[in-house]
Model the fold of this input.
Amino acid sequence: MNQFLKDRETQIVTKGKHSAEIACEKKSLAGSVSQRACVFCGSRVVLYPIADALHVIHGPVGCASYTWDIRGALSSGPQLHRLSFTTDLKERDVVFGGEKKLYHALCELIDKHQPKAAFVFSTCIIGVIGDDVEAVCRQVTREKGIDVIPVMSEGFNGTKKDGYKIACGALSKLVGTDDSYKPSKYSINILGDFNLAGELWILAEYYKKLGVELVSCMTGDGRVEQIRRAHKATLNVVQCSGSMVHLAKEMKEKYGIPFMKVSYFGIEDMSDALYEVARFFKDEEMMQNARELVREEISQLLPALQPYRQKLEGKKAAIYVGGAFKAISLVKALRLLGMKTVVVGSQTGNADDYKLLKELCDDGTIIVDDSNPNELSEFVKLTGANLFIGGVKERPIAHKLGLGFCDHNHERKEALAGYVGMMNFAKEVYASVTSPVWKFIK
Amino acid sequence: MILRHTTKEVKERSALTVNPAKTCQPIGAMYAALGVHGCLPHSHGSQGCCSYHRSTLTRHYKEPVMASTSSFTEGSSVFGGQANLLQAIDNIFGIYDPDIIAVHSTCLSETIGDDLGQIVGKAKDDGKIPEGKHVVQASTPSYVGSHVTGYANMVEAFIKYFSFNTNEKIRQVNLLSGWVEPSDMREIKRITEMMNIKSVLFPDTSDVLDTPMTGKYQMYPKGGTTVDEIVSMGNSMKTVAMGEWCSKKAAIMLDNKCKVPFSLTDIPIGLSATDRFVQALSTAGKVSIPDSISEERGRLVDVITDMHQYLYGKRVALWGDPDTLLPLVEFLVDIDMKPVYIVSGTPGKAFEKRMAEVLGEKVPEAKFKNGPQADMFLMHQWIKEEPVDLLIGNTYGKYISRDEGIPFVRMGFPILDRIGHSYFPTVGYSGAIRILEKMLGVLMDRQDATAPEESFELVM
Done:
């Protein structure tokens, strides 16, 4: 394996071969073709789906251009989040500071759009030139009477994961600011669903059938008013734990709201998510509703999956995604399709995630943290995978290698959550793996 | 109606850009470097920059795009990024084994004052650059210019590093391609071959970002201008530089350093610009224009005359890079269309002057703006004041197209939601036919879709 960076050896283990724990949460090596992004990216992708808030990027134009509407986080109402606002700093501003520019930009935007709140993202350069973004935000908050929340997400301040934490910090400034709301007895917040391809709407429907009220979703199809009263909910249900667990922990400390980690991908995890909530509320009727829902969905889904399973049985998959929790669900979902996971990795997994992954996977599975294209293509060759699950940068590599591909990051166009999502997943995997095009490769 | 927020009244803005018609320098530097054989672009800054640029280029070309990053941390931003870059150079040659690393800076590394030249010098002194391998560097702060500036800076950096005049003139012409698609690079080479001119095209992303499917993944595909070719550019007879914003800097560098005179011409988009390009080639290569090229031109003119009735007087709004917009707007004027609104986020004084020349008295109502606040919001406001029949520009126009119901032809960078740009050229005479085809396609589709029953016809 001389293809690999020597210093990365501890971040790659093979189940059954290495007994050591995988090293993770390390900074990427300088010079690596890492698939990871920065703090700003982490904050931006988490907060972006709050549709009635203003999102202003303070810095040179690039950070705003690259994040302009790149994530399919759907909104059932306002679309303000899909526009790209930036102070577009120039050399002069870098020398003399950009505070005034930010102040004027914010005032102009708030006057024009009357948003419910504003988030101001601080980029690399702001951290270096030392603009007092917090002071500007305080001033505009005072003058305009809306919350203008600084998001101190300078890119170099860590990894994408640190950006999640900062986004949670920004959200927590809104949470708890509306005390007047009285939710029903059984109420939850969904944390860490971004409503890609309308997934939140599927989940909301399930919870409604259980008799659970959704107070807020952070942050998919998000609304500022809902986030303000999120502390009134009885339970926090956290999906993308990598991004949102910080907020859940904080809300537990501050407001005494317990939280549970769930996943909505695959039959097993989706059903568990519903049962866990019903179990939490200790309500027999709710549990009955959950059982019925699961029974009904599965009785339709399983026979429908059968033809796909027959074709996919024994095929091998390689997974490289952002969050490790998602990878865990994927291993299970693939197993349901008769497929074996031979490579699995994530950009931001922690020790617990990897421990769980290792337990779950078969012997011989390569588990990897913070990988790069060289490694990934080598692993695929080594293991003879037929499918790659990843994000935008992995797709063309997988295709060049002659593999089927399924996007499980924020560029996917199909809802993959819930029972209908499992069906979509099966169809997509099937279509890609069995595509006739693979027979034309020389 | 995503753009419901767009107001009709245009108000002067000083502090705010809304929906930018540009992006920042490093992505241009990355694209230019990918046009060199065996080269790995390297982003000296935080990981996010590199990740965003790779994602955007991947989305546009649907191809693997490789680049490494210095992975800045808080420590690097305080103590400087020298240690990161030195380690990066060591790791990259050790593992990814490129022939060349093309380092570009970011707003972060520029502002903390990293001197790329000095750091690369130190890497050399420390023996971190293996024999026969190279590290080229360009300064590309994100708060100056745009992605086009970054492209120009990286092309210049390569010329500055490699090209050398050994006083042995070669019968060859340098072609600085400008920021065009791999398909366009291929077309430029085809035209030059038709004229029987030996040439070096630089950069050249054909066979890098449009590679065939083989079942193998190659980190360094077969395409790209080779080091030997770039070196030899110093001994060429002449340079034909396409695009003032993209290629002029490098042309001047070649002239100053190697005494290779240049002629600056537009990227050959449309009829007049291709005429001038072919003329420039013929002069530079000291050859006459072959019949085969005149015939291609003739076919283009034939299509224009055949289709004039559908095109004349149509009002068009365009956005993109200055080097693409100038010849494209000229082409529209040539075929009797009315390019009325034009924005380019890329700054540069020459834009307004040249655009005024191109539009001249023919389209006196035209509005055009470049630089700060020349963004898609302004474009939309203009369109709301008085609508147009056609939009031409990169993917970001799709919001306006949908909200206002205007037919839309995608051209420029980035195109994230269609394919074809990598495969079918829009330069040269045959490229111009493709532009016509695309415009006619969307205009006629609209006519078919909206014509009342009694006016709906088979023959158009």
About this structure: Chain B has 17 helices and 14 strands. Chain B has three domains: 25-150, 170-289, 293-453.
